[in-house]
Amino acid sequence: MRRFIASLAVIGCLALAAGASARGVSPTPSEASARLGQLAREIGVHRQIRPPRDNEDVERAGRKALRQLGSERLYGLWRVLYAYKSNQLQGPFLAWTAETRRVAQRDGDPALAALADLMTLAYRHESGGYRAFSATDWKRFLEGSSPDVRMMAGIERVRDLGQHGHWAQAARLAADLTSEIERRGAIARPLLAEAHQVHSYTLADIGDKEGALDHMAKAASLDERDAFYLRKIERLYDIGYTAVELGELDAADHFVTLHGQMAAAGGDRDLKTWTKFLCALVAEARADPRKTLACLAPMRDDLRQPGRRLHVLMLQRRLVAHAKLGDAPAARADLTALRAVPTSLIPRDPQVELLAEAYLDQAEGRGLQAFQKLDAWRRADHAKINQAHARSVAEMSSALESELRAKRDESRRLAAEVQLNRQLAQASGVIALLLALLVAGGVTWAIYQRRASRHLREAREHAEAANQAKSAFLAVMSHELRTPLNGMLGLAQSLRSDDLPSHQREQVELILDSGDTLMVLLNDILDLSKIEAGKLEIAPTAGDLAQVCARLIGGYQPTARDKGIELVFRIEGLPPGPLLFDAVRLRQCLTNLVSNALKFTNTGQVEVTLSCGPDLATGRQRIRLRVLDTGIGMSEATLAKLFGAFTQADASTTRTFGGTGLGLNITRRLVELMGGDIQVQSHEGHGSIFVVEMLADACAASDEAPDHVDGAEDEPSFAALHGRRVLVVDDHPVNRRVIRLFLTPFECELIEAENGREALDALEAGLIDIVLMDVNMPVMDGLEATRQLRADPRFERLPVIALTADVMSAQIKTCLVAGVDAHVAKPIDLRDLLSAMDRVLSARVPAGRTASPDALPRTA
Question: Which residues neighbour 455 within 8 Å (Cβ) at sequence distance 6 or greater?
Fold first, then answer.
């Protein structure tokens, strides 16, 4: 018998483990708990000082809707009916349905009549196990109704598809429905909130808990200002249910308490039923059958003869709890009552009954039968879990594929529309002339011009919207790519500074080279985007052109030596004096040309020649840079497409030499922006010659600015860093780890914070010399934290350096306006970070002083 009981316990543990694994990969407990708490705060559970009794706010909204007409009345009554329907409050739901039908008949409003029919079916559908709608019903509401009613029916259809396991269809319909509702405008805001909410149910069923939380957050944000108290309670129930699915049971207990308090304050008995059910779910997840019975004890009378689907679900849980505790008479009574429930109310669940019978057999001394039934339950449950898991993966794949296809179709449609409008605008003159000849009057000409102008304006608006979407996408992608690159390259830089064996040092160098390659690609794409948008500006400054070129060529000498190539830099004629030119962009052009020459040259040499002289036509200085190589050369066909974006000689070039084909395209555009031109001569197998010519203004020697191209003095000591107390504010632990490794050699003391609020608390708690502030963080971002910090006279001279993966110029300007002293881009380069810290510490805080509440100078 002991061996049998041990086997039974093992089987039970395996079953629990299988059930836990079926819930899918979820966020870490701390992240999930914080996210759930934030959601609860967003729906405003603590803001209602005097909750409305008996759903007075819903009733008041319904009376207001009856005084309106058209769409306002339709959407207003939908809100009332949906609130009562979702919470299964039968009495008020039936009363308002009848009132809606009466008004629809009185005013001859077919949309209002369709709404009453839709919501009546939806109530029966939800309360009766999702079997009320027929195919004919769906066709009527989704195809034969007005656009507004069709969207309202779409909400019910998404929920129905999710309940029946058609998650891919549900996700696809939810995406289309959301876009359609957004176009409807502010009047459909509550409908849009519910679209996000039901979509979150689908994502939770598939296993995408993070996606589900995102859509729940959007729903809470949309209906935060005007949600009914009843809907706040419903949202809180959904959050508590999600907490149970995520395994955040402490948070779930908190939400049970909040839900009970809000339901009691509202005074509706039916709402308290949902509190008891949620309580039972948490107890069941904790494997605490006694607590389950305690949660359901007040429902004793309702569970004798269940009349609602929710009551049946409660009865199932009470049955299992009684059986697990060995209370055979109570369990037998519950099992009898459960089997007496008509299947029209809810289908029978053989698994629940089998599990209960197994525990009953064990309680009544039939050990072998209990073992056999529990084993049969375990095998069936395991098969069900595996089937659901495989299906969810397939459904998720199908849903993502459908979404990507929809995005591609939308992109092609927009491009075709912009092209068509452009062609119409170009043809406006000819069409206008033909119209003038046909009608022989200037009035028709003026009308047509106005029409053509409108088309042109719409085309421009579409193009601007597409460009803004692209810019937003690039900004997001830049941030998302730079964040993991920061961790990878930062740790690699830290490893490189350690004393490593040669083979490990080589591996670290390979990591850094690969990361640098990714950074070059990312920067090229961002530069190309800024050039196409007309947002890249040339900023000439005084400098020594020959020194800039010589320093850049010197940096490539190790690469040339490794390949056995001679890299030569020559100046023809007299060296140019101080000139006004954009050193950053000129260096970028020359870098692309020299790196290409070295890449495609295996033997021989690469020669860079600089010449400069006065231009007779303009009186300015003409700069000429020539890059000659003895590499593989190019054919005529290749030369014809050489400067196109994403263009290389052929497919084998990418495989052999790598690259994306963006460098020369960007070089040509930069040279043109600087008022110059680029030419190329090449013969296949005999090398290539690239020639860049541009004009620049001469300047006096006193105007020449020192060239800090490489950003640092030789062998800097970074004396200002030693022994400093550094506050590192970043929500990503890997980023904080990287900075700690960077600053360890300088004996800095690091204080860490995960968001701006924690950073402000840390400043109040102790002495801080410098703050390294991430920009994008939860709770409070870095910009807001910096603004509040600067508003305090104690911290107005505290050095603050912004760390962000967003390197778009607008973001950098925003950081500076917020009050930071410097900006360091992610992935963080060790030398860049140390230089920036040394510079701002030397400028802001004298040596031996700390920027703290006590040490900083105070202002009046």
Answer: 421, 424, 425
